[in-house]
Amino acid sequence: MIFFRLLQSNGFTIVWARSSGNGCIEALARVNDERNSIDTKAEERQAKIKSSQVSDYSQRLNANRSQLPAISRNISDYISRSESKFVAFGAGRILDAFKVYGGLNLSLFSYYVDNYLFEASSIVNGLPILPMSGLQVQENLIFVLFTRENSRALQTIISRSHPSVKILHWSDFKKPNHSALR
User: Fold this and answer.
1) Which residues of 85-97 are buried (b: 16+ CB within 10 A; e: fewer)?
2) How far is CA 142 from CA 19, 74, 90, 107, in A?
3) Pure H helices in 15-111
4) Are 128 and 107 in contact (CB under 8 A)?
5) What are residue 28's DSSP bridge partners?
6) Rounded-to-integer distance, Cα 12 and Cα 26, Å
7) Tens of pLDDT along 17-66?
8) Model-level pTM?
């Protein structure tokens, strides 16, 4: 298969691979590099990844992705019913997953804030990215956090610079009648 030859010709060893059944090939590969080499005694002591662990991960990933269209519809519906401007906070992999697997229309958001990605580029996936400090304080902003966790620390940071905003996490949209959405 071309994919495997491509990996091998670029210095990778394929550790595990399979067809995911949805048109994708899943592979776990390790770069062949002396700095990454493991002596055989250390390798024997080291826990190895079992194919069942990779398979379990893949199943959980597909199950999570299958929820994204419904959550995206709930986010879109909420934005459509509101007169506020919306900020997508975190313009990385989670927002990408909502776009690709959930069909979320990113044009519904007025601003995209990501301090980390902004250090690399002011535009990501064609979207203008702002650092938190670049977002002017204004009324009627609602932040939707596209982050792994809905941390109290992150909410505090946002509230300090934007005291009157509403802050939601994407997980609040799993159930459209969640109390945070009222």
Assistant:
1) ebbbbbbeebbeb
2) 40, 15, 14, 15
3) 40-45, 51-81, 93-100
4) no
5) 16
6) 14
7) 877 666 677 888 888 876 655 555 555 545 567 778 888 888 888 888 99
8) 0.71
